Amino acid sequence: MAGCWELIIRMDDSQTTSLEQIRALVDANRAVRFAGQRREEIYAWVEKTLVRHEYAGLRKPDKGILRSTSPR
Q1: Is 5 domain-assigned?
Q2: Which of 3, 20, 70, 71 has its CA 20 to 30 A from that of 27?
Q3: Is residue 68 scored above 70 in pLDDT?
């Protein structure tokens, strides 16, 4: 009998301070899918991350790194 398993991990990314660290995380974990439990939780995480990394002032490739880690 096949089962469907889902693992829920809480991620504290407050210590992830550089885009290089985020890039390394994304490169090392291509198979990992980030997801939030509630819409409010997802929006709060995305807003905090964009503000912390000053998204508006980033170059296009760096914006892509942040977008690739956004929960869906």
Answers
A1: no
A2: 3
A3: yes
In angstroms, rounded to a whole number, what is the distance separating the alpha carbons of residues 68 and 28? Answer: 13
In a domain, 6, yes or no: no
- Other C-beta atoms closer than 10 Å to the C-beta of 60 total 6
Structural domain count, the chain: 1
- 27: tokens are 């490169």
Residue listed under structure tokens 């899918």: 33
Cα(68)–Cα(29) distance, integer angstroms = 11
Question: Residue range 1-29: average pLDDT?
Answer: 70
pLDDT digits (tens, 9 = 90+) for 32-41: 666 677 888 8
The identity of residue 65, as a single letter, is I
Report the distance separating Cα 29 and Cα 8, nearest Å: 16
Q: Are 37 and 71 in contact (CB under 8 A)?
A: no
Q: Answer yes or no: is 7 within a domain.
A: no
